[in-house]
């Protein structure tokens, strides 16, 4: 109950603050939290997110302790469409395990997950709400439409190696599914929520949620607070994470974080540093018309254009040009008629004065 109470207080603080800043086209990274954002990295964009961490784990019942270091790496790539992203998540750890008189040095992959994410709904696809130049209040009041989240889905497959970190008789391959929502409450506050089911059909099956609240301090610095709840037959827990990020440039970001759980079976403490890097030279912003993505002219349409057969886009341009020319001709016709009418009027006035 305390966990839910603290989470509720954090969310209330988020909703009660409305501070305006600017959106930027900087790197879109999931670090340093455990949640995944709803938006993909973009078509033909490669992004690498990685870090090093320290891990301390102890168990008050099983009476063991483990201390060590690890590295995590996520590779993300925008494939085929702006909304689609494929990713590979890896986590490798080295630690020293002690249980009574038993000691062991452990090492191996703790996570290997290959998956894909697709953005189903984007509330900002038609663009940001335009400022009202006549009303200060209209520009600063809360926009209730911001409560509508972006929604995406993720499906993946886990590969579990037979090493010191695996559960006995755990399946080598198991599915993973995540429902992702992302709220932009204003230009600084963002809430990301993940509802996940992991290692489905495996002995290590678990499900839960991750809620991440991010606050943009300024154009360079951001802070985050996160709560992760896990429920499973083998392991259940609640984990809190807090961290900061620093944007070196639009394609490079540094981060630091610390995580602590609420149990002593086991008691977990993690601290880490990370970096996210993006390569977007091959990315081209899609053309948006009436909130929909406009596809580029295909080779077939270009070929038809050369043969004198106009594409739909060319027909629209031709129709628009013809309409402009029509209005121009009508305007010129009116201007030509006006001098004639004025001359006729002057003649009539002279005749009236002569009479």
UniProtKB/TrEMBL annotation:
Region (Disordered): 292-355
NAD found in the keyword field: no
Keywords from the named record: Signal
A family per Pfam: Phenol_MetA_deg
Biased composition, class Basic and acidic residues, residue ranges: 292-303, 331-348
Signal sequence bounds: 1-21
Keyword hit for RNA-binding: no
UniProt-recorded name of the protein: Transporter
Organism for this UniProt entry: Flavobacterium columnare (strain ATCC 49512 / CIP 103533 / TG 44/87)
């Amino acid at each position: 109950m305390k966990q839910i109470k603290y989470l509720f207080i954090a969310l209330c603080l988020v909703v009660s603050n409305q501070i305006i800043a600017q959106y930027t086209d900087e790197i879109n990274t999931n670090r340093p939290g455990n949640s995944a954002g709803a938006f993909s990295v973009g078509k033909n964009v490669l992004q690498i997110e990685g870090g090093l961490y320290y891990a301390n784990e102890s168990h008050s019942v099983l009476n063991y302790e483990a201390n060590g270091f690890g590295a995590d790496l996520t590779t993300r790539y925008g494939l085929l469409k702006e909304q689609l992203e494929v990713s590979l998540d890896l986590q490798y750890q080295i630690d020293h395990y002690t249980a009574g008189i038993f000691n062991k040095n452990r090492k191996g992959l703790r996570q290997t997950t290959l998956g894909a994410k697709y953005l189903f709904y984007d509330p900002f696809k038609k663009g940001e709400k335009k400022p009202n130049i006549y009303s200060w209040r209209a520009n600063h009041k809360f926009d209730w439409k911001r409560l509508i989240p972006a929604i995406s889905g993720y499906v993946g497959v886990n590969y579990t190696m037979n090493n010191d970190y695996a559960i006995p008789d755990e399946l080598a391959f198991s599915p993973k599914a995540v429902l992702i929502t992302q709220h932009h409450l204003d230009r600084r506050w963002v809430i990301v929520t993940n509802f996940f089911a992991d290692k489905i059909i495996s002995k290590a099956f678990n499900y839960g949620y991750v809620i991440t609240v991010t606050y943009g301090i300024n154009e360079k610095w951001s802070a985050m607070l996160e709560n992760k709840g896990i429920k499973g037959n083998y392991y259940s827990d609640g984990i809190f994470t807090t961290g900061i990020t620093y944007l070196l440039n639009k394609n490079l970001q540094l981060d630091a974080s610390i995580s602590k759980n609420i149990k002593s079976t086991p008691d977990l403490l993690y601290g880490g540093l990370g970096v996210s890097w993006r390569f977007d030279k091959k990315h081209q912003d899609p053309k948006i018309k009436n909130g929909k993505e406009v596809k580029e002219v295909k080779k077939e349409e270009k070929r038809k254009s050369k043969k004198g057969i106009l594409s739909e886009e060319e027909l629209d341009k031709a129709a628009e040009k013809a309409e402009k020319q029509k209005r121009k001709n009508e305007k010129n016709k009116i201007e030509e008629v006006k001098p004639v009418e004025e001359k006729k009027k002057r003649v009539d006035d002279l005749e009236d004065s002569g009479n």
